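Extended Data, panel c. Modelled sequence:
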Amino acid sequence: MNVKKIEDILKIFKNSCISKLNFEDKEIKVCLQKSIKKEEVPVIIVPKQEKPKDVSGNILEEPFSVIRSNHVGFFHHKLSSKEIDTQPVVKAGKLLGVVRAMNIDHDIVADREYKLIKYIVEEGTPVGYGQEVVLVRDL
């Protein structure tokens, strides 16, 4: 048995991120396993978010709501910023935007009457399921 070979294997195993190692050759067979330690949960510092602003740049007062994407894909606006400025009230059933995935459009429709504040997501931006896409105020 070659002790030097085993020491080299142990050294490599100890300094690696590997939790389990099986090694076999003509002379030896080695099975190593590290005990898994519970690591501390990393602390994530989230920068303080600014209060939302409307299209004109005015800081919004509470209460406001968000409409979220119900699909994964690319978000496309259905109202221009001029339409938002001139006709900010959106009736129930109005098409606010579309999430396009694999050439299939998934409509984002107002479920009740809102005052449309702004689109949170830029035109053509990829969005995920549940991502905030439109900022609104309930009427």
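The chain has two domains: 3-33, 65-138. This feature is highlighted in the accompanying rendering.
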